[in-house]
Each structure stands twice: as structure tokens, then as C-alpha cells.
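User: Show me a protein chain along with its predicted structure.
Assistant: Here is one chain, sequence first, then C-alpha cells.
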Amino acid sequence: MKKVYQICSILLAFVLVAHMGMAQNRTPEEQRELFGYCDKQALMKQFNIAEDVANKIGDIDLWATKELISVENNTNEVFATKGELDKEVIKRYKALKLSDQQLKSLAEFKKNRDEHPTPCEAITLSYNKAYDTLSLARALQLMKTKYRKSLIDKLGINGRQADMIFETEFYKQKEALAISAIPETDFNRIRKTVAMYQVRENRHKASGLTDDQLAMAINFFKENQLYPEQVINK
């Protein structure tokens, strides 16, 4: 029991410290939405945490962030100190019935994320400024000439599928350029970026790509871009 409490205490410290730092730039609700785009997926894949439990972790983080803000502002009607809030949050984490190893992994994940932040791919906007003046016909001509054979060979697809992948890449670049005009402080920029990547995935699946081929198609265009000197990642 003491071991679990210590793990939860470490976990809680990183939840609250990280969220208070982020609160300067994002509202608690926006932080919760970001959790769904980024951390939730990592927790499910890396630590075998069920989706419903991952959602509850995000909800606890949201609740804790709001409560801590009011504690710091001396407006919280339930918790007078951070220590009191700590105990309640620990109880909520323990109620999720995570194993000791899952709690430890979660604590280490949050610690590493906050000490060594890396871009979340789901919300990172990547676009090629060259597409601002490229028409669909011209872009397809250039991509087919330069990449069609290698794409077919690498993914094991037919010519029609390759052409559909090129059309999807053109859509993605044009949409990304439009999104890039939205200020980085506007959270809708993130929402539109996530939606764009979802449309790209749906279009690739409609082309008949398997999950492995879909991932390979996305990676292909990370490595192969028309006018690569004009690629921007933000």
C-alpha cells in the first residue's frame, strides 16, 4: 500500500506541475482535448491501458488542474491547500485499479514527457509552401514522374492506388497551407490539423491500403517532397 501511495504521489506531482505550466497557454478544457489527441494514444499503446481508463485519467487531470487553479487563487471551496487536493487525486487514481507497474509507467511517462518534451505528431502541422502555386494537374504530373514507380514498388500497390495517394497528398498539402494561416495561439488550428490528418487516413483507406501500407504512404511523403526546401513543420 505504501508503495502504491508513493507511486501515486510521484504521478500527481507531475500531473499538477505540468498542467499548471500549460495553463498559461491553454485552458484546462483545451488541455483535456490535447490529452485525447496525444497522451491518450500513447498510454493505450505503450502501457496497455484500456481506452475507458485512459479517458478517466484525462478527466482526473482536467479536474485536478481546475481545482489547483482555484486553490492557488484561494477560491476553492473544498480544498484549502495543495496537500489536501493531492490526497483526493491519489484516491481517484487508485480507484482506477491500475496495477503498480501501470502506475509506475504512467508516472515515468509523464515525468519524461515534461522533462523532455517531443512534438505530438497528431497536432504537428507539416506543409509545403510550394503547393501554394501548384495546380492539381501540375502537382500530379510532377509526383507521377518522380515518385510513381518507387511508390508502387515500396508499397506493393497498383498504378491507380498510387495516383489516389498522390491526390490525397495534394489535398493534405493544400489543406495544411490553409490551416497555417490560422494563428498558432488559436486552438482551432490544432482541431483542424487533427481533422485534416483524419481525412487523409480515411482517403488512404478508401484507396484500399492496409494499415501497414497507410503508414508507409505517410512516411513516404515525409522522406520525399517536391521542393523539400519549402517544407515547414510547426
